[in-house]
Every structure is written in C-alpha cells, then in structure tokens.
Design goal:
By secondary structure, this protein is an alpha+beta fold. It has helices at 6-22, 71-77, 85-93, 115-123, 152-156, 192-205, 295-302, 337-346, 348-354, and strands at residues 26-29, 40-45, 52-64, 79-84, 98-104, 109-114, 139-144, 170-171, 174-175, 186-187, 208-214, 234-248, 269-281, 308-313, 360-361. It starts with 5 loop residues before the first helix and ends in a 7-residue tail after the last strand.
Length: 368
C-alpha cells in the first residue's frame, strides 16, 4: 500500500517537470537535508557545450493546484506563494541568486522571479525587514506576474548572473575578487581587437553614451601614417560620460618599499565626466607625438570649454609622453597599459570579463 499523500504526489510531479524543462542545460545541486530553505540549485553549462560554467542559480519551488488558482485568476494577477519572512530575507541576502518559482497547474506553466527583484519591487531597495508584515507575523504572501514564465528566453538569460569570492583583496573596502595589486601591475601589449573590446567595456561600465564616431584622419596629421597601417586601428568617438571615469598616472605610483611603517605613494589620479572626445589607439605604431595631431578640428569636436579629451593607447605610459603635454584640453595623461590595468583590476565586472584573457607583466600579488 502506498503511503504517499496527495500533496507529496503533487510536489513530486512539479519537481520532475521542473527538472525536465532544464534537462541538458545544467548540473543539479541539492542539499541532502532540507535545512537551507532552498529546494534545488543548478550549475549552468556553457552554451553549445558540455562544459559547466561558474554560474550557479538556486530555486525555491512552490505549487498551486488547479482548484486553488484557475487560469482566469492566473492571467489576471499571476501566481502567489506563502513564504516565511525569515526565509524571504535569507534568499534576498544570499550571495548567489535565488528564484522563487511557482508551478501553476491550471495553465501547466512555471513562473519565477529573482527574490531580490520581488522584494525590492514591493518594499524598495532600502527594505526594512522589521516592517515587512505586521508585528509578530511569520509568513507573508508574495506574487509573481504572469509574464515571468520559465521559458527558453528566461533560461537563456540565466548566464547573466554571477558571483565572486569576497575573501581576497579589498580596495577601500570594496571586494575585487582577485589578489593582483590594482596599482602596481602593468598589462602586456594587447591584441588590437581585444584592446578595443576592453576600452568599449570600460566606457560602458562608466555609462558612456555615443553621439557619433568620426574618422580619426580628421584630427591626425596626414603625413603621420602615410600607409594607413596604424590609422586602421585608431578610433575617434564623441559622446558623454554619465559616470566618472577615474584613472591613475601610473608613472607617479611608488612601486618599491622604503620604510615599511610609511605609506607608499599612490600617485596622481585624473577624472573625466560629461562631454568627451575619446581617441582609441589600438595599434599606435609611430603615432606617438603631438605633431601627429591636428588640434584645431579636435577642439571643434568638443564644442565648448567644458569638453575633455580622453586617450586610450595600447602601449606603456613611458612611450606616450608627448601626449601628456600642454593644451588639447586633455582630461589627464593617456590611459596606457598601466592605467588600463588599474581600471580593469579595480572594476570587478571588467576583471570578470577580461581577467583570463589579458596578460600582466611580472604580476604583483597585493599580499606579497
């Protein structure tokens, strides 16, 4: 005689359906004992391969019977789940993303929502947990919109989630996710297309809005690159930086140790924000001197006294000296391979994207 009660059969059924829908996309992670208040986790596979990625996603599953929540109710308001407030807070504060997923029997579909989005849409980004529910209330009903289906677009988008180790180097209290010294490292020369990708990612991370891309030949002297070899790897962008881009002049940073009781010099720092012209020199070659630049049209691009020029150059700062001189309304010295290294190492999203693709000269461990 079976001892399985109907509710257990219902739960077993939607758990199996959930596994079926994710079959082939992941490896399964489970707790042996139900003390973590999370049903299942997955470690995603890289698209089109059998290799597993570093992305882990967790799900807490709930179910609604047809008799409890029919299709009309679902289409009108979505699906609900009654959860303990303590569990909701635990999922919200978890170091890896947790989805609350609900099986709706009446429509044969799952809906799911990132618990962080669920909480913040109702209680705000400054949620005060002692004000969630009434005094003494232990559980609360939460709703997931009918548009939040677990379908192919939802599953394809799960790889956007990421987590990072926070037991390594910190910088001004900010977790970096690596042990490289962010100031005292310098990149090897980067392959030009990769250099452009890194620069584009830096601009995106600082909320750059492109107003237009111009021919660099407009501002570079005609005889500076007669064969056009280096000009082909040069870009000139015009736009606005909504976030403040900050970088060091790497030649002013103290590398060695003197008196261990005294702080080391961290050098000069420069910023750019607002209207900018961005000159990207992915293969600078002989384009190294101010004589290569026609300043009048570049100044016209900026259009007013508040505009600034930012130069990214795929070379060490010592070779970019002529670009640091007078005029040109420069925001600061060029971001060469020292400054570029600092920006990548101080920005976790950039290090996660490019850390395994870039090479550093004589890597310096922050703890050494």
């Amino acid at each position: 005689m079976s001892t399985t009660i109907p509710e257990e059969e219902f739960e077993d059924g939607y758990v199996l359906e959930f596994r079926r829908r994710l079959h082939g996309r992941c490896l399964w992670l489970e707790y042996h004992r139900d003390r973590g208040a999370i049903d299942l986790g997955i470690r995603l596979k890289r698209p089109g391969t059998y290799e597993v990625s570093q992305t882990r996603v967790w799900f807490q599953l709930k179910g609604l019977h047809d008799a409890t929540h029919d299709a009309t109710k679902f289409n009108d308001k979505g699906a609900y789940a009654d959860v303990e407030i303590a569990h909701l807070r635990e999922w919200y504060e978890a170091p890896e993303v947790v989805y609350l997923a609900v099986w709706v029997e009446s429509v044969g579909e799952f809906v799911a929502l990132d618990v962080r989005d669920l909480v913040e849409s109702r209680w705000g980004v400054d949620v005060r947990w002692d004000e969630v529910g009434q005094p003494g209330q232990k559980s609360i009903r939460v709703w997931i919109p009918p548009s939040c289906l677990i379908d192919d677009p939802f599953l394809d988008g799960l790889d956007r989630h990421a987590s990072m180790r926070i037991d390594t180097t910190t910088w001004r209290g900010q977790y970096l996710g690596h042990r490289l010294d962010p100031l005292r490292n310098e990149l090897e020369v980067v392959e030009p297309s990769m250099f452009n990708n890194v620069v584009d990612a830096i601009l995106q991370a600082h909320e750059f809005v492109l107003d237009g891309e111009l021919e660099p030949a407009q501002v570079l002297a005609a005889d500076s690159d007669p064969d056009g070899v280096h000009l082909a790897h040069t870009r000139l962008l015009q736009g606005r930086l909504f976030g403040t881009l900050r970088w060091p002049f790497s030649l002013s940073i103290e590398y060695g140790y003197g008196n261990p009781e005294e702080p080391r010099e961290e050098g000069q720092w420069f910023t750019a924000q607002g209207k900018v012209a961005v000159l990207v020199m992915a293969k600078p070659g002989d384009l190294r001197t101010r004589g290569d630049l026609d300043e009048t049209p570049l100044d016209q691009l900026l259009g007013n006294s508040t505009g600034q020029t930012v130069v990214f150059i795929n070379d060490i700062e010592r070779h970019a000296g002529p670009w640091r001189t007078r005029g040109l309304r420069m925001a600061g010295p060029p971001l060469g391979l020292g400054a570029l290294s600092a920006v990548v190492l101080l920005t976790p999203v950039l290090y996660r994207a490019f850390g395994g693709k870039l090479q550093w000269q004589r890597p310096v461990n922050r703890y050494s």
